[in-house]
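Weekly sync, protein design subgroup
Attendees: M.S., D.O., the rotation student, P.L. (late)

Item 1: inverse folding check
M.S. brought a backbone from last month's batch and wanted to see whether the design step gives back something sensible before we order anything. D.O. pointed out we never logged the input encoding, so this time it goes straight into the notes. Structure tokens as presented (117 positions):
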């Protein structure tokens, strides 16, 4: 069974299937901020969605991070490294990509496992 949560015309914020959770791409809360703040608020949104879906950071399977410019890589990683629980790093890719809005510096897409009841 496939469960879609907060579905709109183009996407669902969360899709669950066979114990796997797929989150739509997440961006920051305020695009006027620097890469550190954009990364932190983006990850805060991931936390909220994982909780809503019945998961958490320790159950992430993979993450794909999109940076507007790879010059932000080290600063983004400082926030990421503090956010990911030690020993629970997911498979991850980080690529440079054109953002949907000019002010956005980072976006993430996450797949996680549902926490077993």
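Designed sequence read out in the meeting:
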């Amino acid at each position: 069974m496939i469960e879609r949560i907060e579905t709109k015309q183009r996407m669902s914020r969360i899709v669950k299937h066979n114990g796997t959770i797929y989150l739509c791409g997440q961006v920051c809360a305020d695009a006027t901020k620097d890469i550190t703040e954009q990364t932190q608020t983006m990850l805060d949104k991931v936390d909220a969605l994982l909780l809503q879906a019945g998961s958490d950071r320790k159950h992430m399977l993979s993450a794909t991070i999109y940076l507007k410019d790879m010059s932000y890589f080290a600063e983004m990683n400082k926030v990421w490294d503090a956010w990911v629980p030690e020993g629970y790093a997911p498979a991850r890719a980080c690529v440079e990509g054109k953002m949907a809005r000019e002010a956005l510096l980072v976006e993430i897409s996450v797949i996680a496992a549902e926490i077993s009841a």
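Discussion: The CA atoms of residues 62 and 91 lie 4 Å apart. The first strand starts at residue 2 and ends at 7.
Action: P.L. to compare against the previous round before Friday.
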